[in-house]
Amino acid sequence: MSSQDVQRPVCIIGLGLIGGSLLRDLAAARHSVYGYNHSTSGARTAIKQGYDVTDDLPAILHRAEEDNALIVVAVPMDAVASVLDSIQEHAPSCGLTDVVSVKTEVRQLIVERNMEARYVGGHPMAGTSKSGWENSHTGLFNRAAWVITYDYAAECEARGERIPAEWENIFADVVRMTQMVHAEAVPVRVANHDAAVARISHLPHVLAETLAVVGDNGGILAQSLAAGSFKDGTRVAGTRPDLVRQMCETNAPALVQALDEALELLQDARESLASDKPSIAALADAGFRARTRIEARSGARKESVSPVKISSRPVLRLHPGAPNWVAQLRQTESLGGRIEIF
């Protein structure tokens, strides 16, 4: 085990697309990793494929407690509370993270259970419209942004309290885990995360569902002529409806604000097209410029917020517990930068 690896075993609770892909990647890296799947058939399939998996939640949590494992909560939002209760009962000293697409509601559940001192939130910006162990695969997180939250550290600092060393160790291991699966760790506070994903993750689901309905309403001819742009725009409408509901409904305030902006733009475009001289110029020009900026930013992931270079990808190298390290996180967050642990 190198200093770049997670310094403890990893226990993954929930082996769908994200949890399953994480287990596959960590196993491929020969790291100690095991997991739980609610689906007995899914667990049996994973076992047959050679993975250390069970459908016995108390047993896997007892094992995690004995190993001082890092627990990854990778279940749908509506199952998070019950999983946290089980962790409290069977693995009361383990550090934990999660991969849920909303962070405010998860952290509220954490706070209610007094688990803040051993929790570091996470959210990999990766996935497909497919779900379940059968759709998980290695390489899903390659170069994907992986949000790492640090609200607990920021709050300790604001109160003038020392950040517990164990929390710093958990934070470091969560970042190391993202490094092991070749993702890019991005420090973000909970509220900022939810506001951002409402715009770039949850709103696209609302628009994709809408576009799919409008296209389908065109009947057989429209369905037959649907090509690349329509299929690209409706891809995430293929996501299971219950998962879409959980993502969007648990982040409703931020999503409503983003949706209001979208509706205003669409209303302006409608009025312009309904005028005596129909035009889509304003929206087309603004959209083109916005897309260009987003593409430039995506290409700028190799640009550094620090002069230190790691391989071909400059990033901010961080040592939790070092002087001003939380201030460095805030600076990196403001720049959308990446971090690595050394």
UniProtKB/TrEMBL annotation:
One Pfam short name: PDH_N
GO biological process: tyrosine biosynthetic process
UniProt keyword annotation of Kinase present: no
Enzyme Commission designation: 1.3.1.12
InterPro entries for this protein: 6-PGluconate_DH-like_C_sf (IPR008927), NAD(P)-bd_dom_sf (IPR036291), PDH_C (IPR046825), PDH_N (IPR046826), Preph/Arog_dehydrog (IPR050812), Prephen_DH (IPR003099)
Domain Prephenate/arogenate dehydrogenase: 8-305
GO molecular function, one term: prephenate dehydrogenase (NADP+) activity
Protein origin, superkingdom: Bacteria
Keyword Lipoprotein: no
Keywords: Oxidoreductase
Family statement drawn from the similarity comment of this UniProt entry: Belongs to the prephenate/arogenate dehydrogenase family.
Name by which UniProt lists this protein: Prephenate dehydrogenase
